[in-house]
């Protein structure tokens, strides 16, 4: 899953990025409100963390502008403000939750997971035929057979299934799954696709991941194994 952090203090931003990447999130950082808003409107994020008091555009205004576009991405405020009026003001601007500075990383992580769980409530199970993915528990099943994946394999499969029946270009895959935002060798994708295909086919999911030569990959409804 891909998160955006809008935070003007490099120490806090770096701390959050390192911690969240250890939890297998892809993380982008913006150091002011204008850059953060631009990134939020251009890219697809699963959750946005925004400091209330940031340069250029305040966190409140960033939140309002995102909501004006109809984007329902979960937004979590970081704030040193602690009055009830401030909290209500932030929530009324469109935030889903807030956490007061200073904070413990474990509490922030728990709040992030709550928001992602709520976001995925209607699609706790991502399906492609007999393939079933639970993004909360990180479990994968082909029919009744559980498939054990590494965190990166799971992230790749989840991204492909969320975009089922749409071609996922190599550049988009490397950006969303590996958090790489520049031209680079994408051969690592092929390696992981090979790993995934072997595991899924062994579990009876058939040819779920198909190659679009010269472009990327697509997930289609798998066939039940005849064996």
TrEMBL record:
It holds the Pfam family Trans_reg_C. GO terms for molecular function: phosphorelay response regulator activity; transcription cis-regulatory region binding. One of its GO terms (cellular component) is cytosol. One of its GO terms (biological process) is regulation of DNA-templated transcription. The modification 4-aspartylphosphate is found at residue 51. Keywords: DNA-binding, Phosphoprotein, Transcription, Transcription regulation, Two-component regulatory system. Residues 2-116 form the Response regulatory domain. InterPro entries: CheY-like_superfamily, OmpR/PhoB-type_DNA-bd, Sig_transdc_resp-reg_C-effctor, Sig_transdc_resp-reg_receiver, WalR-like, WH-like_DNA-bd_sf. Residues 123-221 form the OmpR/PhoB-type domain. Residues 123-221 bind DNA. The keyword Transcription applies. SUPFAM superfamilies: C-terminal effector domain of the bipartite response regulators, CheY-like. This is Two component transcriptional regulator, winged helix family.
């Amino acid at each position: 899953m891909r998160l955006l952090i809008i935070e003007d203090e490099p120490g806090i931003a770096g701390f959050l990025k390192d911690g969240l990447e250890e939890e297998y999130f892809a993380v982008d950082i913006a150091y002011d409100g204008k850059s953060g808003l631009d990134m939020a409107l251009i890219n697809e994020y699963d959750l946005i963390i925004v400091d209330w008091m940031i340069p250029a555009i305040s966190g409140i205004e960033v939140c309002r502008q995102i909501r004006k576009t109809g984007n329902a991405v979960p937004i979590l405020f970081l704030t040193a403000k602690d009055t009830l009026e401030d909290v209500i003001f932030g929530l009324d601007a469109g935030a889903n939750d807030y956490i007061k500075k200073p904070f413990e990383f474990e509490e922030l992580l728990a709040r992030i997971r709550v928001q992602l769980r709520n976001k995925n409530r209607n699609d706790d199970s991502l399906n492609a035929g007999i393939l079933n993915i639970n993004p909360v528990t990180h479990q994968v099943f082909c029919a009744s057979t559980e498939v054990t994946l590494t965190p990166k394999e799971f992230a790749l499969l989840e991204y492909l299934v969320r975009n089922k029946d749409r071609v996922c270009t190599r550049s988009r895959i490397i950006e969303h799954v590996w958090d790489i935002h520049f031209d680079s060798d994408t051969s690592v994708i092929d390696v992981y696709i090979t790993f995934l295909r072997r595991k899924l086919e062994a579990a009876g999911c058939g040819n779920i991941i198909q190659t679009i030569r010269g472009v990327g990959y697509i997930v289609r409804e798998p066939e039940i194994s005849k064996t």
